[in-house]
Amino acid sequence: MKSRIYIRWALVFVWMTVIFCFSAQEGAISHQKSFSIAIFAEKFIEFFTGKDLINSHNRKNFELFIRKLAHVTEYFILSMLFYKAFFECNRNSKKSFILTFIFSVAYAISDEVHQIFVSGRGPSAVDVMIDTIGIISYLLIKRTKNMIKNSLKFCFK
C-alpha cells in the first residue's frame, strides 16, 4: 500500500518535470518543435482524409491549435496523476477532486511564472485558462465515470 503511494507521487513529480522541461525551452526551440509536430499532424490528417486541409492560409492557426492542444493534454495528464495520488492517500473522492483542482491550477500558474525567466517566452493568463480546460476535462470525465459506476452499484444491489 505504501509503495503504491510513493509510485503515484513519483509519477506526479516526473510529469511535473516533463512540463517544466517543455517550459524551459527557449521560444524559438519550442516554436520549432511545435511546428514539427504540426507538420506531422497535418500529414496524418491528409493521409486519413485524402485531402489537403491545411494550407498556407490556415497553417499558423493549425500550429497554434496544436500548441494549445498540447497544453490541454499536459494538464489533463497532470490532473489524472494528482487525482490518483491524492485518492491513494485519503480514499476520499471529493477531497481528491478539490486538491487535484487546486494543485493542478497552482502548477499551471507557477509554470507561466517560470516562463518569465526563459528567453523568448513569457507568462500567459490565456495559457493558464487553457491548462484549466485540461484539468476540468479530466475531473468531469472522472466525475461522470464515478456517477455511472455508483448508479450501476445502486441498480444491482
TrEMBL record:
InterPro entries reported in the protein's UniProt record: Phosphotransbutyrylase, VanZ-like
Where is the chain membrane-spanning?
65-85, 97-118, 124-141
Keyword Transmembrane assigned to the entry: answer is yes
Alphabetically sorted, this entry's keywords are: Membrane, Transmembrane, Transmembrane helix
Domain (VanZ-like): residue spans on this chain: 9-140
Name this protein carries in UniProt? VanZ family protein
Q: What is the lineage of its organism?
A: Bacteria, Bacillati, Bacillota, Bacillota incertae sedis, Caldicellulosiruptorales
